């Protein structure tokens, strides 16, 4: 054994001695060209056969640059929307793929060289290195580490190559999709044989893609049709069919019973029945779809293609169900009295089959188009599917228009009264006809994508129009029934909130108009942001996106804050009215305030309360006052030019309510007009004249002009003064006693202060006496003076005293004497 071990050791020493020159050469070359995991360049003899090798450091740097360029291309792809940009990015991707191939070809020789060196050294002994061979072990470990580094770089290059290939395939798909969606793309028209070629012959590429997709569908069906699963699958399919056909009728009957028995006998029943018809169809279809999903995919994990197909089929089915439901709701051939639009029975019956027919054709053709899109078929097959969709849609809608017009013409020829149409209905009818003609013309000349766009937009417009029409009718009828003074709901609101019939009508008008405005906004959002196949959830997201747009975000307004602001406004308005009623009826009368003081304080309290309520509402909305700087600037400019009078009257009204130079109930005289103040508003004051008419005086005039307040002051007495002129031969004392007697006998004249007679003046026309008496109120001074004049004239005639006649100068035309 010892001799054998010695012999083996000698053989190893001899092998090391033979390989030492080669190992020294490898060590020198490795130390000089790969001090930091680098490799020397190949010899000149190998330059012609393979590309020159490259160091690992340079290879890693180039791969990092390639990855950065690839990321940049992906970012640019998301923003490109034309074929030219996609072609440029695709060319750049191909160039990067070529560079990676070249780099990989430069790295492969390095790995081959390293592997050859390892082969020369041989594998490591199982029992470990023997003494004296430590240099070989170190050399083997170094070469193994270098080989692992080269393998890592090659793997990184292979990964980048695979990613670039995938990116190139995606560019091709994007290019095809962009080409398919170009409205200006022109192909063969429907009257050309080339348009129908894909029906008879399909390309190998399309066949492979359709077969692969068909294999996925078959696999899904096999998973639910295995022994032991067929019974449950059949039961679920039958249940989906029963719910789709019978469930709709059952739900519709239940909703109809509720509308007829629980809703008031108003127009609300008609609109609610129409909505229930559409909802029952949509609800039954949605439930049937869920059961169908359980029947087909309960034991199969859907692939991305099948998941995409199911989403498209779901949207398409619900949209077609909505078309059918709205058609039945608006035509309502079984119950003409429930029909919302003004359609003749003959016209409604003639149009009855078209909504369901259109829905079925749209479902079939739309499903075919969805499969073409998911499978990514060729351009000719895609255009064929879109052309079929456009053709069946245009022909169905056109046939419905022609049939309706024919029935109307027959009714007119029979002498029956025509239907009443508004201008808007006529414009919609004409626009629909023009859209159908444009779609058929585009199909004839080869603009298939244009025709599909027109027909889909037309169908979506009809869906939005019919849906919004039903909702607007329902909104109007709900408001009319809820706030009707003749119904129990309106009477309960009157008793609960203390409203009058006039207030109920105002609330009805405001809420109806607000609901109509929101529905019209929803229609605009649906038409601008939606399209055929858009779900209610998509519309809601679009609506919320617009409501939460940048303009409202700048004001910090959000839906939750809008709700809080509405609730706060309602509660604040109710509290303000309640406090105002308590002040007017309980608190201020208990303090003994006069009516004028109460009215002034209540008006001031109400105005201040409204201002605080508006500020509180804006605060609940989250409005930042710095965001309203532009509003303040606009108001300043408006005040400087056109609102200065309004602001002046407003400030004057506040001054009148605080300083109270005049108050409600005062009798004033301004600009020769005398009357009682009935109300002081924010802008103007209402003055009731003696003839019971009302004069509106701006508040600023009561501040800036001279105003005579008859009732202002501590005394509430009035003065009745009469000035009479008598002839010079009249006994003044006799007349004085007569006048004082008349004043003392009148019941309205006060004893204290006592009536008095003053000798005013003595003139050639006679003597002037002024008699004065005090009455209980200035308001009866005029009537008292009238009574006193009647009595004085009667007493003067009885005493034989006459009043003085003023002297007048009469000038007459005297004829001149003729001196001739």
Automatic annotation (TrEMBL):
Domain Mechanosensitive ion channel MscS: 646-711
Family of the protein in this entry: Belongs to the MscS (TC 1.A.23) family.
GO molecular function: mechanosensitive monoatomic ion channel activity
Domain Mechanosensitive ion channel transmembrane helices 2/3 residue range list: 603-644
Protein name: DUF3772 domain-containing protein
Lineage: Bacteria, Pseudomonadati, Pseudomonadota, Betaproteobacteria, Burkholderiales
Signal peptide feature range: 1-33
Disordered: annotated segments: 67-86
Domain DUF3772, first and last residues per copy: 154-214
GO cellular component: plasma membrane
InterPro entries, sorted: DUF3772, LSM_dom_sf, MS_channel_1st, MS_channel_C, MscS-like_channel, MscS_beta-dom_sf, MscS_channel_2nd, MscS_channel_C_sf
Matching Pfam families: DUF3772, MS_channel_1st, MS_channel_2nd, MS_channel_3rd
Organism per entry: Paraburkholderia tagetis
Membrane topology: Multi-pass membrane protein
Localization in the cell: Cell membrane
